[in-house]
Batch of 2 targets.
Target 1
Amino acid sequence: MAEIRNHDFDNLYWVTLKDGNVRLATKNADPGKKVYTERLVTEKGVEYRTFDPYKSKLGAAIFNKMQNFPFKENSKILYLGAASGTTVSHVSDIVGDKGVIYSIEFSARSLRDLITLAERRKNILPIHADARFPEEYSMIVPQVDIVYEDVAQPSQAEILITNVKTYLKDGGYFFLAVKSRSIDSVKDPQIIYKEVLDKIESYGLTVLETVNLESHEKDHIMIVGKK
């Protein structure tokens, strides 16, 4: 039998497996189905999916003691760089049937996987678009509670800022997974992080915390802030 404990954040759990390993988890909104290589654990008739911090930067940030977690039931989220839906699927578990994840992905191959996932999880809305041009999805995406970005582009900060200005409601939260090597493969990552933070703050946005993801993702940080 596994031991299940509530996490401090809404709809997240700690699962202690039979071998003593402790994993982060979400309740599976699509029981019996995996999305990637996560483990399924059933306890007292409830199925949980382990949330792998090596395959999700959001999972890594939670493991590395992120302090702000506004994802809740009914949240509306604009997710930039949804890829095949690994992290999106856990967010889907968290926000529930009345939440919505507007999932922007440019790669047609990844989008196919995302569409397959969305056929089973109705709170995921896949959108084939380029996050650099937020006007492309203005007819679909409303004002949202959270903007989350995980895009491997040199213009990561600019992409975040334009989408936050367009879609994030006042008082809403933003998350930016900064991939320093996608911005500059030679420059010291610490310098890149400071440049990104300065750029975000220069637009009047408030940075609440930065979380180093080094233990799970090399040369990455997560920036969390508020509009």
Target 2
Amino acid sequence: MYDVPEKKKSEFALIQLMPNMMTIGAICAGLTAIRFAVYGNFKLAVMMIILAAVLDGLDGRLARALRSVSKMGAELDSLADFLNFGVATPLVIYLWALQDMRGLGWISVLVFSVCCVVRLARFNVSSKSEEEAPKLRKGYFEGIPSPAGALLALLPMFASFAYDGAPVLPELLICLNMVLVGLAMISHIPTWSPKAMKISREHVKYLLVGFAFMAAALLTYAWTVLVVLCLGYVAMVIWGLIAKPKG
């Protein structure tokens, strides 16, 4: 008897396509952020980038939960990350505060964008090759992930929106922040990953209460809370640089 080769699936349940649909939604959010920024609606532009980051954090987990992980989905997710965090984010910042700087402002945009694409390429290679995988303790990234890098690059905008809407930092510092964040993305700094975080059953109730408090704070003082979260993340990155956890 001969083995009958398995036939490829010709039909998919709609729910199995949800992760890819979320990724496409994130791409649309990133492109819409650029459109809003061109027309000067910077708050909505930043909100679109935040929405893209949220969708980016959910699509992979949903794909694993539905057992619908695919090579196409992984490549699509990587391309969406570059568009949303490596292109839309620095362009929004440039249109917001750096146009008058001309060359220097644009150079900082290019540095950030190139660092983002290099980080994504390195991550893709290391995830496919066990030999080149970073030798860090489980639960840590190598360098700052691109969504976190985008939010840190947007920190001056968060601070501005939390006050009167005008830039609260000089243009040169905004450029410097973007360049430093870009270099941190391609660095070997160990940064904590929430993917490995586990909560004991007895502490779940405290986590839910904390989540409710955070959600209420974001809805009431969104920009101030985002500033605090970014500064807290910076403190974690500095701690990771000092501690240097190894496997």
